[in-house]
Write a structure and sequence with these properties.
The protein is mostly helical. The protein has one domain. It is built from 12 helices and no strands. It starts with a helix and ends in a 17-residue tail after the last helix.
């Protein structure tokens, strides 16, 4: 990995990891539905501009767009909303660590739904370890019962991401679409879906302070739009498997930005549980003892 590629890798991890902090700040002036709507519109605008400049053709088939709409629902709209609702009571760092369980859930669903994915003892051990790590992170024995609903919302977001990834692999990957076209199409579809959904969600008059506006713009333009661009550039440079390793660094940046910029506390079970989750993912994906044999999937926060 060259220095330039490593810089892109770390920048992507920072953009995705800091998205949890930006959501927390945005909640000071916007409802979860308003945050997601602004995020998706800005992110879709960035990708639409890129495909226009590069003259990338978007899909024209109605069948493909139906599949894209489903992928957008589970891969963007639902998880973005759940994370935003979850962070109303859960910390940004905690949310980032819980979203780190996405690869484990993806492996579980892929093994059950895709004929090419086989259940192996290695996967089983990694999954069990990873889910034990989630229990440690959530700390049901602690006094944080007030944030349990927020924590469960974040786990639900991870499950939705996993459903979206498996759906894309099963129905869209075989279509051979250009990655940039697929990403732009999915964000555009997600923005349309969220536009229709927002009037039915909780709404109040936005309090657009400078801090809130900066957070929303950063969330949409950088952590959503630019992050997709960096991710697909990494895939082109080092391949999907190596690029997906960014999942191991995202929770670290989520915790760091939460601590440094929001003064969030760090508990022992957050650190230990997070490490157990990452170790479980690494073992299940065969990253710990050797090259990974199965294709990996990556999430967006």
């Amino acid at each position: 990995m060259t220095n330039a590629t490593l810089a892109r890798f770390l920048l992507l991890a920072l953009l995705w990891g800091s998205s949890f902090m930006l959501i927390k700040v945005s909640l000071d002036g916007l409802t979860p539905g308003q945050i997601v709507l602004a995020r998706l519109i800005l992110g879709a605008a960035v990708l639409a501009l890129i495909v226009a400049v590069r003259k990338v053709n978007l899909p024209r088939s109605g069948e493909i767009w139906r599949h894209i709409a489903v992928a957008a629902l589970f891969g963007n709209v639902v998880p973005f909303l759940l994370i935003s609702y979850g962070e109303q009571t859960a910390g940004a760092g905690l949310a980032g660590v819980l979203i780190g369980v996405t690869p484990l859930l993806t492996l579980t669903l892929a093994t059950a739904a895709l004929p090419t994915e086989r259940a192996t003892p290695r996967k089983a051990i990694g999954l069990v370890a990873g889910f034990l790590g989630v229990v440690l992170v959530m700390g049901p024995w602690s006094d944080s019962a007030g944030s349990l609903g927020g924590q469960l919302a974040c786990v639900g977001a991870a499950l939705s991401y996993a459903c979206g990834f498996v759906y894309v692999r099963k129905f869209l990957s075989p279509k051979g679409l250009a990655p940039t076209a697929l990403a732009a199409s999915q964000l555009i579809a997600a923005a349309v879906l969220q536009t229709f959904a927002t009037p039915f969600l909780t709404w109040h008059t936005p309090e657009l302070t400078g801090k809130v506006v900066a957070a929303v713009v950063g969330l949409g333009v950088l952590s959503t739009g630019l992050a997709y661009v960096l991710y697909f550039r990494l895939i082109g440079d080092v391949g999907a498997t190596t690029a997906s390793a960014v999942n191991y660094v995202v929770p670290v940046f989520a915790v760091l930005t939460g601590v440094l910029l929001l003064s969030e506390p760090v508990t022992w079970n957050l650190i230990v549980g997070g490490l157990v989750v990452l170790a479980g993912v690494g073992y299940a994906e065969n990253r710990i003892t050797g090259p990974r044999r199965e294709p990996s999937l990556v999430k967006e926060s």
